[in-house]
TrEMBL record:
Transmembrane segments: none
Listed GO MF terms: U2 snRNA binding
A single Gene Ontology CC term: U2 snRNP
Similarity field: Belongs to the U2 small nuclear ribonucleoprotein A family.
Protein name: U2 small nuclear ribonucleoprotein A'
GO BP term, pick one: mRNA splicing, via spliceosome
Species this chain originates from: Scheffersomyces stipitis (strain ATCC 58785 / CBS 6054 / NBRC 10063 / NRRL Y-11545)
Superkingdom of origin: Eukaryota
Family matches, as PANTHER family: U2 SMALL NUCLEAR RIBONUCLEOPROTEIN A
Keywords: Leucine-rich repeat, Nucleus, Repeat
Pfam families: LRR_9 (PF14580)
InterPro entries registered for this protein in UniProt: LRR_dom_sf, RU2A
SUPFAM superfamilies for the chain: L domain-like
Gene3D superfamilies, per database record: Ribonuclease Inhibitor (3.80.10.10)
Length: 237
């Protein structure tokens, strides 16, 4: 189904748990983004979970009130570097269970307000030092993949990629020019949990998977997030 003006006008409008006005466009088999300008900058949240979108593009520059984009369960492999204005106010972006394989410099340039990012379920999380590089690439992040960003992680990221966030060192540049790799261990600590989480998620029934993804995206506190993560990791629903 195309994202026509009629589809947008007929969509449900709700208040999320934080009281933000939300446009719900879930489960509509939408192949690409279009016509969002007719929303007239009314919404803080646009929910496009579980569609068939392959590219994050065509977000109008005038959506200054938009703070949250929910795009989990699509087929997104690329973020169009021209789709967001430099002054956008995106604070939370969920790309859980998509097809992103490569890092992009636009995450630094285009998401200057981003505090919460979810990339679990994308091939990119299998890259060695994935978490450190994303933390370095997006200095404003407070939560990555439902886990609070710690000061120690910021320090380790700077050791790897440099203190100057405006300058890509040789290692950082290499990350921008290669696809996802298999994770081994980072600093002697096994990082297979993210990979296992992704695999477990694929083994769940479609109904269970959808329900868990909904719970993850609407979770409002760390205890709730930890409980859901535990269920995903153990396969217990």
């Amino acid at each position: 189904m195309r994202l026509t003006p009629q589809t947008i006008n007929n969509a449900s409008i709700v208040l999320n748990p934080e009281g933000k006005l939300t446009l719900q466009l879930r489960n509509l088999s939408i192949p690409y983004l279009e016509n969002l300008g007719i929303t007239q900058n009314k919404f803080a949240v646009i929910d496009l979970t579980n569609n068939d979108i392959t590219e994050l593009a065509n977000i109008p520059a005038n959506l200054s009130n938009l703070e949250v984009l929910l795009l989990g369960g699509n087929r997104i492999s690329y973020v169009d570097e021209e789709t967001f204005s430099d002054e956008n106010g995106i604070k939370s972006l969920s790309l859980i269970n998509n097809s992103i394989t490569k890092f992009q410099a636009c995450f630094r340039n285009k998401f200057r307000c981003l505090e919460n990012l979810v990339l679990i379920g994308n091939p990119i999380v299998n890259h060695k030092h994935y978490r450190y590089f994303i933390i370095w690439l997006v200095p404003t992040l407070k939560v990555l993949d439902f886990k609070k960003v710690k000061d120690g992680e910021r320090q380790e990221a700077e050791k790897l990629f440099g203190v100057d966030k405006e300058d890509f060192n040789e290692l950082a540049l290499s990350y921008l020019h290669q696809g996802a790799q298999s994770k081994t261990e980072e600093n002697g600590v096994s990082t297979s949990d993210d990979r296992n989480l992704s695999q477990i998620g694929r083994k769940l029934t479609p109904e269970e998977r959808v329900e868990l993804m909904k719970k993850l995206e609407s979770a409002t506190n760390l205890d709730e997030i930890d409980e859901i993560e535990h269920k995903l990791k153990t396969g217990m629903v």
